[in-house]
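Hi F.,

I've been meaning to write this up properly since the lab meeting, where we talked about keeping a consistent format for the predictions we share between groups. The idea is simple: the sequence comes first, exactly as it goes in, then the structure tokens exactly as they come out, then a line or two of notes. No screenshots and no reformatting. I'm using this chain as the first example so we have something concrete to point to.
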Amino acid sequence: MTTDLKQLEAWFITGSQHLYGEETLRSVAEHSTQIAQALNDSPAIPVRIVFKPVVKTAEEIYQVFQDANVTANCIGVITWMHTFSPAKMWINGLKILQKPMAHLHTQFNRDIPWSTMDMDFMNLNQSAHGDREFGFIMSRMRMNRKVIAGHWEDPQVRESLNTWIRAAAGWHDMQGAKFARFGDNMRNVAVTEGDKVEAEIKFGYSVNTYGIGDLVQVINQSLDSEVDQLVKEYNDQYLMAETLRVGGSQHQSLREAAKIELGLRNFLEAGNFKGFTDTFEDLHGMLQLPGIAVQRLMNAGYGFAGEGDWKTAALVRTMKVMGTGLVGGNAFMEDYTYHFEPGNSFVLGSHMLEVDEAIASGPIRCEIHPLGIGGKADPVRLVFNAASGPALNASVIDMGNRFRLLVNMVDGVEATPKLPKLPVARVMWKPQPDMKNGCAAWIYAGGAHHTCYSQNLTAEHLSDFANIAGIEYVTIDNDTKINQFRNELQWNEAYYQNNKH
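Output, unedited:
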């Protein structure tokens, strides 16, 4: 379920017109080819950049966008107006475009050649006003896109393009994605509910429920030889509790956990699912709650969230795709309990059994302990601390008339206190701008208790994704002031009430 971003491509499309003659158009094509090739060769760009012939007429524009729509591995288009390209030519093409767009507002030359510049040079290098013409028509058509301004060799420009590409890759992965929901959501919980039909319309992924019996049947088909191999893998990769080792008093529980992982993986692979949910209230026929199985499947790239929270499961998968190849991980998370020490307040996050080892720092232990809920046998789980450093928590919320993507920038802190009686994977972080205001802002925004915790994505990644999806986006960071934040929420409410679509 891992993703190879180099199998994906973004198309580089340059606009011009026939007004300037063939010599100028040859120069436009040469310059565009050079820029596309340089971006393709740049380590900062994670997908292939594919140069497309310069478009000069409405027919050519329509055709290239139509081709982009039906090309399976094209995740989006990068547009640039080398010369002036009359924007009415773009209307019909833009009307049919279904892929994300980044408008690269650049020019081939970095500096003005003061001593040699003539009218031929001016006619050729007109991005300064050609891109404004193009920008107007997209604003007039109310089109979502990302505008990146600056010279194409500027590292900051390439990094901004990289960020948009990763957001577009996450969006691309969502289209047609399937998520399995084993049982319903946790009873009487509000935030894990939501409109699955609207989600499929808005995001492109589907969520369907499957009976626990269907999963248990697949789990029970696991072969002893397969269990033996997976148990060996556990022993090789983790610090194993003595009772779980061969001959230990709880070794059979480890084998049962391995059977659950094998069954879950086989079920997901057979159905071509990209993620799943379950709930401890609906696991009839399973001997223990899925712990290590869920943790390892998330580490393999699957999206997951507990208690039937399909929105967060889809977000976890998407953020994993966006963060492919970057240092750090993305994991299902929950704000669990607070430390309110004056001057050193922070959140302890966990989800008992189901936090992804991709965010771990230090040793990872495989242990078994009672859980206290679920009414099942003691579950096997991986126990570790998470790495410190810059991070964020992201949550998708169904607000009734729209989806809201809420992001809180946080600072992960090292788990220096010992927790000998808390055998779970755990993360500690300080919310921005500070504990009191960060938590209050999250509550005002209706943020869920389930999130995706990311060590390698930024607010810009999530903002770009929300822009592509056409959903509301709200950030809590060091610049957040509660009164201004509440005003922003009210302005957003008015906007979405008046712009229903």
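Notes:
The chain has a mean pLDDT of 95.
The first strand starts at residue 9 and ends at 15.

If this format works for you, I'll send the rest the same way.

G.
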